[in-house]
Specification:
Number of domains: 2
Largest sheet: none
Structural class: mainly alpha
CATH architecture of the largest domain: Orthogonal Bundle
Number of strands: 0
Shape: flat
Distance between the termini: 16 Å
Number of helices: 14
Oligomer: single chain
Strand content: under 5%
CATH class of the largest domain: Mainly Alpha
CATH superfamily of the largest domain: MetI-like
């Protein structure tokens, strides 16, 4: 386990550094002088502008600035906001719990209905149930999140009045969670369906049936565990994508979070905040995939055995 973890870390660290290098390079070529953005149109003397360039590190060579960039990230320091003059790390940390809450709600919804629909289709393929479920899943995958969010608001809040649109608490989290989770349901259900169909045809499943085991035991203990290996890999990528998808949903439902902060920062050209959100999102994506690799190691004995 330890050697596999070390190998995974050795793969993840260069990927993280390369992604940060690309982010750093992209923000260097964005038009606009950071000093002008920080001054916000306020007139300043050449001496003040020179002091600001020194404080921002713009007087250093590009490789040295990248080294400072990586060092500051490792310390949790990503500069000061041009708009509010607050530390960027504190601004992101203040909005992160709301985004994680929305992501967790969408994940729970996606897991429940993705696994349920996938099992219904996989255990009885090519039937009426499979046809209906596949149509519903395909419809959910085809609708953009902003459109599904608006439709949910119109039906369940405006017309039926079952749940509130704005506010805090569990009731106000239901519709945003469904909006985010629809993306997970679509991909997970289709992959679980194909994995279950393939697994149910394996020899060890037929042997378990021949021994007279209860059908539910055959599905849960023999088929489902092996069928979940490909969906777990997909789920890791979807969780990271959900964090990005939550940004759109937060703006639709006027919720606080990383998405709302990102939109505000883009409109205000607050580059340090935008850069921090991109950096943290990239790091979260790589970390989640690392955790998925470790989970696959724990579940799948073929990963532990390696080439042998």
């Amino acid at each position: 386990m330890l050697s596999y973890l070390l190998r995974s870390l050795l793969r993840a660290i260069p990927t993280l550094l390369v992604s940060w290098a690309l982010i750093f390079g992209a923000f260097q070529v964005i038009p606009g002088d950071p000093v002008n953005l920080m001054l916000g149109g306020v007139p300043a003397s050449p001496q003040v502008r020179a002091n600001l360039r020194t404080a921002l590190g713009l007087d250093r060579p590009l490789p040295e600035r990248f080294v400072y960039f990586v060092r500051n990230i490792s310390r949790g320091d990503l500069g000061t906001s041009y708009r509010t003059r607050e530390p960027v790390a504190g601004m992101v940390a203040a909005q992160l719990p709301a985004t994680l809450q929305l992501t967790a709600g969408g994940l729970v919804f996606g897991l429940i209905f993705g696994l349920g629909f996938g099992l219904l289709s996989g255990l009885k393929p090519n039937g009426v149930t499979d046809l209906v479920v596949s149509a519903v899943v395909l419809l959910g995958a085809s609708i953009p999140s902003f459109w599904s969010g608006l439709m949910l608001i119109w039906v369940f809040s405006t017309v039926l009045g079952w749940v509130p649109i704005l506010g805090q608490g569990f009731a106000a989290l239901i519709l945003p969670s469904i909006t985010v989770g629809l993306f997970v349901v679509a991909g997970l259900a289709r992959l679980v369906r194909s994995s279950v169909i393939e697994t149910m045809g394996q020899d060890y499943v037929r042997t378990a049936r021949a021994k007279g085991l209860h059908p539910a035991r055959v599905v849960v203990h023999h088929a489902l565990r092996n069928a979940m290996i490909p969906p777990i890999t997909l789920l890791g990528m979807q969780i990271a994508t959900m964090i990005g998808g939550a940004m759109v949903t937060e703006n639709i439902f006027a919720r606080p979070g990383i998405g709302t902060l990102l939109i505000q920062s883009v409109l205000a050209r607050d580059l340090p905040v935008v850069q921090a959100i991109v950096v943290y999102t990239t790091a979260a994506y790589i970390l989640i995939n690392l955790l998925v690799d470790l989970l696959a190691y724990a579940i799948d004995p073929r990963v532990r055995l390696g080439p042998a």
